[in-house]
């Protein structure tokens, strides 16, 4: 049980559960039957576990170097070898569970996981560190629609919204660790842009995604937008503006990080509300 707890702690539980819940909600929104919904959710959960655990396995030496006491591998609670084995098993399960949902869903899920693993393996330290997030989150809404009996890719507006969400997640997720990352040689796009610019760009990206979700499902017809969609869009816009004000007023703090993540979660909720129109 101690090993399992350590592996769970290494899986980045918060993001893992949020992404899994988003997949579940999108599956419900597109009307998947129970067995398809269960497979989709389980496949995404296993995939996210593989991403989180592999990330901590790769970064174990860096985390020890900067004294990351919040990381089970850095504390020695589980070995790197065990973590790699768990990540490989989770990745295999993610693909096996995706297979019954069709080759298109399997291929799309494999692409999202391939991007995430590529980020962990080295792209995080490059100027194009944002690319895996743009691709994997852009594809992500299609996982639900491709899991349907009549598979279809999500509309272009959903791809744009997903990519915007991915950009915001990447640009803000690393903000609390910029200093530690620099000391261990990690210089991705947010490190090169700086904390203030990263937070500001993330806020703008979320608003762009919110506009896509607001107008995309109705073909740009503003009069056809529903009240819930307007309410969620307004919430995203308000939080994004607050983020921009805080980010430009001084050095971004934990409050700025939380504001951007709140805006991203509201964008995800907006995407779910429009899920019935997800398929292109």
Characterization of this structure:
This protein is mainly α and 280 residues long. The chain has a domain at 154-280: Up-down Bundle (Four Helix Bundle (Hemerythrin (Met), subunit A)). It contains 14 helices and no strands. The termini are far apart.
N-to-C SSE series?
HHHHHHHHHHHHHH
Share of residues in helices: over 70%
In DSSP terms (H or I, runs of 4 or more residues), the helix count works out at 14
Q: In angstroms, what is the radius of gyration?
A: 19 Å
Would you tell me which CATH topology of the domain at 154-280 applies?
Four Helix Bundle (Hemerythrin (Met), subunit A)
Calculate the terminal CA-CA distance, rounded to whole Å: 45 Å
What kind of assembly state do the chains in view correspond to?
A: single chain
Strand content: under 5%
Structural class: mainly alpha
So what's the CATH class of the domain at 154-280?
Answer: Mainly Alpha
Main β sheet profile? none
What topology emerges from the helices and strands here?
Layout: H1 2-10, H2 13-29, H3 34-58, H4 60-65, H5 72-75, H6 80-98, H7 103-121, H8 131-146, H9 156-173, H10 178-183, H11 189-193, H12 195-215, H13 227-249, H14 254-273
For this entry, give a set of tags.
Four Helix Bundle (Hemerythrin (Met), subunit A), 0% strand, mainly alpha, 74% helix, single chain, 280 residues, globular
In short:
With 280 residues, this protein is an all-alpha fold.
């Amino acid at each position: 049980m101690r090993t399992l707890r350590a592996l769970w702690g290494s899986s980045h539980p918060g993001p893992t559960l949020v992404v899994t819940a988003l997949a579940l909600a999108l599956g419900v929104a597109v009307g998947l039957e129970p067995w398809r919904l269960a497979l989709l959710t389980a496949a995404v959960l296993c995939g996210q576990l593989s991403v989180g655990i592999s990330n901590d396995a790769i970064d174990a030496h860096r985390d020890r170097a900067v004294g990351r006491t919040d990381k089970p591998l850095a504390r020695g609670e589980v070995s790197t070898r065990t973590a790699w084995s768990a990540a490989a098993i989770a990745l295999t399960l993610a693909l096996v569970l995706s297979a019954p949902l069709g080759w298109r869903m399997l291929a799309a899920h494999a692409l999202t996981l391939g991007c995430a693993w590529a980020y962990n393996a080295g792209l995080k330290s490059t100027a194009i560190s944002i690319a895996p997030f743009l691709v994997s989150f852009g594809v992500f809404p299609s996982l639900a629609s491709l899991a349907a009996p009549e598979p279809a890719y999500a509309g272009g507006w959903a791809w744009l919204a997903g990519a915007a969400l991915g950009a915001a997640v990447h640009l803000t997720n690393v903000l609390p660790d910029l200093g530690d990352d620099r000391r261990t040689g990690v210089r991705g796009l947010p490190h090169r842009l700086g904390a203030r610019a990263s937070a500001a760009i993330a806020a703008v990206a979320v608003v762009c995604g919110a506009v896509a979700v607001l107008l995309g499902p109705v073909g740009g017809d503003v009069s056809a937008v529903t009240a819930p969609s307007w309410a969620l869009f307004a919430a995203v816009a308000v939080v994004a503006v607050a983020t921009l004000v805080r980010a430009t007023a001084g050095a971004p703090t934990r409050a700025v990080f939380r504001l951007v993540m709140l805006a991203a979660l509201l964008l995800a909720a907006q995407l779910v509300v429009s899920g019935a129109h997800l398929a292109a």
